[in-house]
């Protein structure tokens, strides 16, 4: 790798680490002569923290954008209602710093950070798969919600040094979620914000796609990492581009492959607002496109599959709808009590009974699955998963409701077979479909509840999550730009 390759990616990591150090200094430090804010932070970093002047200026811009997007001070009720986001995250008195420690910088978070930054990081650098898995064992000790974390750990043999820290930041956020931390940092957002500002300082934001791709290739920056960080559609001819077809099959949930699709990044609410309604891809559609467009395998996506849980005839059931029947998507932008706000704040969305009756009625494309008839494993008091082996010997054993669910998610007939072969060729021996636990539905879905849906990257076995409530996480969906 050339010196320029190392320097750019190392600079991103160095600046992100420096910015995070300032985050902690702002939130957990106190006793200064003045309150730190946008107008004096640069001087503080130069004079008190010995930052170089260019670094000080860049870190201030990074934090300004990061705090605005992260908004953790307000989420954790630690905001001072200051219009300056830097000042809003600055503690002056001991009680403010103590509140940050109690609500955000908890022992659980510190343990996750320590394990990722020591055991896991060393294992990744040494390509030691067994050692990387030891992170899970360490976390079991304090009874984290760790079922499924093993699937979220990246296989060291498939991780390149080019995007290691990008993936590590993603892993930390997944572990924070798995440990059910109510409030937590967003290391992936901080990394992306840092990448974006460093790229801007080099003038990359002014380049055409062709020139930018040349710069990225020269610097050995993975294209998918750059697209995710720059939040920009960067065109590179892909295998299978130009298709605009509908795959034959059940016309209620047929698979589309279109050349106009783009990845849109953001939380579910902001990203969905940027595409044309009716064009958001389902899990089966993304899986189909992944057969020929391997770049899609490297990231996870919110999907158009509508998810409704309810009790019928005393049994817990799951309905999966097409986008037109996805009530979470339909009400993301409601002025009051939106599906987005309900999922973020209450974990469940409560749609109206009239709308539920509408979208699950015959002819609307919804499909019903009796959770009691599925062989579920793992999880906790809230969720479990259905496992699908990717070898012909394993998936040929699927029958009844399990087969219907697998084909609803990953495609039916030849598409399902092709998807399983693709997974097996990529070293994925089993994929999973996460659902709410039947007992949780029985206790909480006296009136129907909705969740969002999610398709993981190949790093996480392309598992499908039918119980997603963390819709405020910055990620992507796929559709036609609006």
Overall description:
The protein is of the alpha+beta class and 482 residues long. The chain has 2 domains: 3-201, no CATH class; 298-480, no CATH class. It is 45% helix and 14% strand. The protein is built from 22 helices and 12 strands. The strands form 3 sheets. Strands 4, 5, 6, 7, 8, 9, 10 and 11 form an 8-stranded mixed beta sheet that branches. Strand 5 (306-312) and strand 6 (315-321) form a beta hairpin. Helix 7 (107-125) packs antiparallel against helix 10 (164-178). The two termini are 40 Å apart. Residues 1-6, 139-160 and 237-253 have low confidence and may be disordered.
Kindly give the count of domains.
Answer: 2
The rounded Rg comes to 23 Å
Largest sheet: 8 strands, mixed
Nearest-integer average pLDDT: 84
Note the total helix count: 22
Percent of sequence in beta strands: 5-15%
Task: Name the structural class.
Answer: alpha+beta
Low-confidence region ranges: 1-6, 139-160, 237-253
> How many beta-strand elements?
12
What's the helical proportion of residues?
Answer: 40-55%
Please give a quick description of this structure.
This protein is α+β, with helices and mostly antiparallel strands. The protein has helices at residues 3-28, 41-47, 53-70, 72-75, 85-88, 94-103, 107-125, 129-140, 149-152, 164-178, 187-201, 209-218, 223-230, 268-272, 283-290, 327-330, 339-346, 353-360, 392-395, 400-410, 414-425, 438-444; strands spanning 244-247, 255-258, 261-266, 301-302, 306-312, 315-321, 367-370, 383-389, 430-436, 449-455, 464-468, 475-480. A hairpin with a 2-residue loop joins strand 5 and strand 6.
